[in-house]
Amino acid sequence: MLELIEVWLHRPNFIAFVILFLWGFYIMVTHHNLVKKLIGMYIVQTSVIFFLVAISAKTGATVPILLSGTGPVQAATYTNPLPHVLTLTAIVVQIATLGVSLALVAAIYRKYGTLDEDEILKRLE
Amino acid sequence: MSHHLPALLFLLPFLTAISLPMVGLKHREWCRPMAIAAVSAMSVASIVNVVVIMDSGEIRYAFSGWAPPIGIEWVDDGLASVIMVTLSLLALISLINAGPTSSSALGQRIVPYYTLILLLIAAVTGIVFAGDLFNVFVFLEVAALSGYALVGVAGGKALVSAFRYLILGTLGASLYLLGVGYFYAATGTLNMADLAQRVPELMTSKAIVGGLIFMFLGLGIKMALMPLHGWLPDAYTHAPDAISPFLASLVTKVALIAWIRIMFWVVGAGAEIEHVPVLFLLVELGALAAVVGAFLALTQHEVKRMFAYGGISHIGLILIGVGIGNPTGFAGGVFYLINDAVMQAALFFLAGAAMYQYGVRTIEDLGRLRGQAPWMTGALIIMAMSMVGFPPTGGFFGKWYIILGALEAQNYLAVAAVIISTVLTLAYFIKLFERIFRDTQPSSGIIPVEAPLSMKVSIGVVSAAIILLGLFSDPIVGFLLDTALPSGL
């Protein structure tokens, strides 16, 4: 058990990811306010993006642009650009989702005059 | 030229979707013809695609000429081509069905409405062809975002359903992306063909197992697999009547297709987690979904909600079919998937038309159809026969091959689940028909509205398609067995 905790402590990024993910999930599940639910959802998405960045972290490496055309490429000296590109795409998806969800929440508010889920469910009856 | 077909199939609806807002600025009435033209062209192209695949084998399309695994690859094989024909034809019929009733209600918003429908169709194409895990994620999200907006178009209750769909759908997408991240961290690649070489020997790695579970959970939410189906009944019930067929026949099915791709083309059919075969778990989950979904359908009072639960139960049946792990079961499962897409579209067309003509919302209201709508009742009988599984409809042959596969694999639990869900399906359709044929209440004085021709035509076409799928089940299953099987089976 102690060894396991030691292994975990060597990876603070992943601990941060787990905390963020569960925190966001908790907010999504427990809060009744629709905007707070959205905040939870946003944290969940951000935590996954954070995870993608964390797995691509590399010490002592530089931006992935070849400095000279000659000689074999030393992969160890460059960071891997792919996770960052994935991250960018995921952020775009996240923003689009947030836009649609805020539009929906605004429409719900105009229709029902409240953002509380219980209140809305009561009026739906 | 023919090797550009996958890209063409995607670009037809996608480019039309992008150009619609510009054209729609001046000529709002052009939206519908343009959308129908684009999807018709897409349907023709998808049929040509099947012929090309039959002739010359699968097409692997590398975008911009960048060879995979560095570039993005689309795989157009037997499975993808058959599914594509089904989905594009269904999209075309749903688009024809979606017409007149919605244009009067939507007014100004008709332009974004058709744009979103076309984006949904384009994204579905992308998921079917994608040969890359991340591509699947992006297209899942494009499809889901158009889906949320389309559900919300109706306003009122639909807004709340759309919001719930959005929250759960986004959670599903995040879980799927997390799984993709795990796979990438463990293997360093996202290309499915490339992953297929590295993943099987890594099945003991916790990262791969964890990633697989996260991806399954994510796609499970998207395909509304039984315990994760919470968003679906509300969304389908409250969505506009013209939109429900799109969602029911396209969205959940492509998530299932994405999972079949990952399961059979990346992880491999023989994969085991701690000596438990993954396929075994799939069959168990499918059996649960098939039985419980059908049982929940029996307890519903609203017509659309009942059909939505019927769809949930069929997702389970398809999972049983593909999960059995022999060619008969796999082909049966995929054939049932095609049937289910057609049946779901048909049922929601019918629910839409019944609502439009007679104001039918609950099962009690169905009594209004008695003696009034012989054609609609006839179409409902055909659909019910297929849902329950009477010959000569497509549903019968789908279940037949699934049961044959299960018997071959000596998986009697799967056989029992299929039979129980069949009995329950029969029970809920008896509940419907009892209202239509044996109701003793006098029929209410509602004066029916004449349904537009497009509605009648679309119901007729899908009813005929259900019978045709049954009559031509042999060549279709034969084609699936010849070309669409994954290598490990």
Sheet/helix structural class of chain A: mainly alpha
Number of domains of chain B: 2
Helical coverage of chain B, percent range? over 70%
The Cα radius of gyration of chain B reads 21 Å
What is the CA–CA distance across the termini of chain A?
51 Å
* Range of strand content of chain A: under 5%
- Structural class based on helices, strands and sheet pairing of chain B: mainly alpha
Spatial order of the strands forming the largest sheet of chain B: 1-2
Q: Give the overall pLDDT of chain A as a whole number.
A: 87
Biggest sheet descriptor of chain B: 2 strands, antiparallel
Low-confidence stretches of chain A: none
Rounded radius of gyration of chain A (Å): 21 Å
3D shape of chain A: elongated
Write the layout of secondary structure elements.
The complex is a heterodimer of chains A (125) and B (489).
Chain A: H1 2-9, H2 12-30, H3 34-55, H4 82-112, H5 117-124
Helix pairs in contact in A: 2-3, 3-4
Chain B: H1 5-26, H2 31-56, E1 59-62, E2 73-76, H3 78-97, H4 99-106, H5 110-129, H6 133-152, H7 157-187, H8 192-198, H9 206-223, H10 232-238, H11 244-267, E3 272-273, E4 276-277, H12 278-298, H13 303-323, H14 327-358, H15 374-388, H16 394-408, H17 412-437, H18 453-471, H19 473-483
Antiparallel strand pairs in B: 1-2, 3-4
